[in-house]
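Protocol step 4 of 6: structure prediction from sequence.
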Amino acid sequence: MTEPGFRLGASVWGFYGRVPPEDWPTLPDAVRAILSIDPDLGVEAWGSKSLDAPAAPEAELIELAEVCREAGFVTVHVRGVHMTWDPTGLRREIDFAGRVHASVLVLHPVCLGLTRPSDRLDVPEVRRIAGYAAERGVRLALENLEDTVWLLDRVLEEIGGNPEGTNLGICIDAGHAHMSHDAGREPVTNYLERYAGQLEHVHLHDNHGASDEHLLPGDGTIDWSRALRTLEEIGFEKTAVLEVHPEGVSVTEGIRRGLAYLARRSG
């Protein structure tokens, strides 16, 4: 088996999402723990230690930016406080992404004001925000949630489907795709193929198709051999991160196991 053809990393969220606050490391230490596995790994950073926690102290963010320079690549996931239509807040997240040298900022659809089919996209303002990100070297990537083909399609139709021109691409979350019923019997493969031309980033985690468990690859029911083969077939060579909450082992050991599993299923 060969290594995947894309660049691999891990999200710091695994150190916080289902961990008691008293066991939370600092954000820089979470990045260091990932890089201790392999210094070539990338990292997906957050500006806080949980979805809705306040921003980390300024001194910690300064140190985070320095540590992130050592990573193979950096992406950023939008914080929960900015999971709403707030153009000013989005620009702050873009500033944070630029500060930690991130190439991609992952957004949830609600960040663009879309949660229901009746919601309308503020196309001029979204284009201005994407331009603001481009000036800072950050590409925006809209993440699929469960059953969101309609939403991703609408954004691409209204904003444009060429990320090089719009600075807005797609992040496919394999776990969210696996829970979806709007993309046929092979939803992970179908999501990846459908958005191959806009695919900027991938989130890798597993589940059993019913809830967002964030299991290690192989601990759920995703067909990883097929998913990885699809990524190879569409020529995906960008970035992907493990976004996992290991059970029964440390986060670093879980990441090690996840990387090893993906390597065995590649090729």
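Step 5 (inspection) to follow. The CA atoms of residues 206 and 222 lie 6 Å apart.
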